[in-house]
Amino acid sequence: MASDDLENASRPLTLRDVSEASGVSEMTVSRVLRNRGDVSAATREKVLEAARALGYVPNKIAGALASQRVNLVAVIVPSLQNLVFPEVLAGISEVLDQTHFQPVYGVTNYKPEREEKVLYEMLSWRPSGVIIAGLEHSDASRAMLKSAGIPIVEIMDTDGEPIDSVVGISHRRAGREMAQAIVKQGYRKIGFLGTKMPLDHRARKRFEGFTQALAKEGIEIHDREFYEGGSALLKGREMTETILKRSPDLEFLYYSNDMIAAGGLLYCLDNDIDVPGRVGLAGFNGVELLEGLPVKLATMDACRAEIGREAARIIARRASGEEGGGEKVVLTPTIDLGATLKR
Amino acid sequence: MASDDLENASRPLTLRDVSEASGVSEMTVSRVLRNRGDVSAATREKVLEAARALGYVPNKIAGALASQRVNLVAVIVPSLQNLVFPEVLAGISEVLDQTHFQPVYGVTNYKPEREEKVLYEMLSWRPSGVIIAGLEHSDASRAMLKSAGIPIVEIMDTDGEPIDSVVGISHRRAGREMAQAIVKQGYRKIGFLGTKMPLDHRARKRFEGFTQALAKEGIEIHDREFYEGGSALLKGREMTETILKRSPDLEFLYYSNDMIAAGGLLYCLDNDIDVPGRVGLAGFNGVELLEGLPVKLATMDACRAEIGREAARIIARRASGEEGGGEKVVLTPTIDLGATLKR
DNA sequence: CTGAAAGCGCTAACAC
DNA sequence: GTGTTAGCGCTTTCAG
């Protein structure tokens, strides 16, 4: 008893401990614990009993080294503080939970050099696959991904050259479609509010698609405003005030995400600015938060959970040995005009 | 060249490959790659050059097995969709990034049986420490944590019996203090709105502390309303409408989190209910979101980032071999009366 | 400063 | 159904 406790504290238990406690060979213990091969019900019970009694937790490090198999899927996202990514992760777990694969999350804070480091660390554990946000990576990161010899799925964005598979939406197209919807409603003097974009390629692409579609209609962005860091809701408020004071003739404001758009909406409501009469508003993402706002904000669903699920499905298939590679899944975001984008 | 590429694709590179490419023994290559021991500048260069050229990524599985050392810290939280936890995780990385430790995140979805599974999976990779949210765990989970032989830090909550170390705030006390502040402002008919609590022990403890402090003043909760799932902002709206219609004489509403409180606030503003004159409001957490609201909501800071940092510091110290164990860090949340809790 | 030998805890492959 | 043997890719230890 006492000696058991001491041993417990000093040294992690091994298969051998279970083997000795149960009087069954290590190999058979291993088989029981992994449900592999045929083991008689009697010995099976003996082993399970011993393992439970000792509180044995298998050492996956040794197991992985011996079997050359790791059930980990590396999932790399820029941030967890932007609700979008937790939603994608939820989609991923939803699917992987049905398999023997396990997601492991890494966060890059939107920094390529951090992405490189996180990727390196994760790859050094030899995961069965990688799901990584975005198509833009440093050369070193791309090289690592290419030579890893495991399925890679880049997610969120489909505008660019994938390394292997890709699941997402076209942000250029999302920007274009929003521009078309806005113009169709008769708005002409249009402003853009968003993050400083070197960081955020998807926001940049939406902006590019947006301006491009406007150009086709002979319209130029009337004014723009960018922010960095801080509370998005508050920034949305402040930027809206700034831009409307600077360009009082603006008829429409397109925000690069829903949170700042919500801030803008609250600003307008507070200041009795008629929405969408005096000024129309639209955001991007379709975050759940919007449902509680006083006025339904126009937005575009980014298919976050579905992106996660689909990426996980691809990984699960390929990592289980199915042939494949280079799949491209382009989801179509649906536009929601809400009550802030119609005249 | 061609054969390099083929090999690359078929089999992950090993130390031996680098050794052969550089003409240096495996052992010395290993030393160079880990910056251990003295190696001459010349051979060091040769090795690094070869490793880079090949694109060698070390196999941590083998390394961990051989060295019996793993630089992973398991971090287990109930959810990533509740902004609170990403903020804690950010605090954790902030500190661990300065060390050689790496956080690995697991999510339980508030389910004890999932916690058990996640914990088991993570422990089987033999991490150097565990940071886990809450003090309530299944017997099996507690047993695993106790016998893991590594530092354990339970976070967020200090009301209960920790397994090893604990960093957090007292939610009972948080509830008590909010009750006292409310009563002090002269409010008497007080309602509570929150999550269905079997899931959320911390919300329950706040509620207990809250009612207990009110009882001391001879006050009983006037009405209450609970929700489950869905958009918190919207739920806040709906519950506020429900409770105010049912109990029109309510003078104050205490919400178990800021998101539903914000929904309540927006509901009141929309319906020209004077806040805090007609009815006062308070939430819990001090989420960044609040800064963008039209009226500053009363809340209490839960010290999220600091909890993460402190937990990480404890793990880093202990996992680096320093003696210790059983530390208890109780942070003190500061109450912010905002503009919704004063008459 | 560098190398050779042994072994981390487990599982694949094969014998019995 | 069960046991034995070898070895996964690295690091520890010890010898030079």
Automatic annotation (TrEMBL), chains A, B:
It comes from the Bacteria. Pfam families: LacI, Peripla_BP_1. GO terms for molecular function: DNA binding. It comes from Psychromarinibacter halotolerans. InterPro entries: HTH_LacI, Lambda_DNA-bd_dom_sf, Peripla_BP/Lac1_sug-bd_dom, Peripla_BP_I. This is LacI family DNA-binding transcriptional regulator. The keyword Ribosomal protein does not apply. PANTHER family: LACI-RELATED TRANSCRIPTIONAL REPRESSOR, TRANSCRIPTIONAL REGULATOR. Residues 13-67 form the HTH lacI-type domain. The keyword Electron transport does not apply.
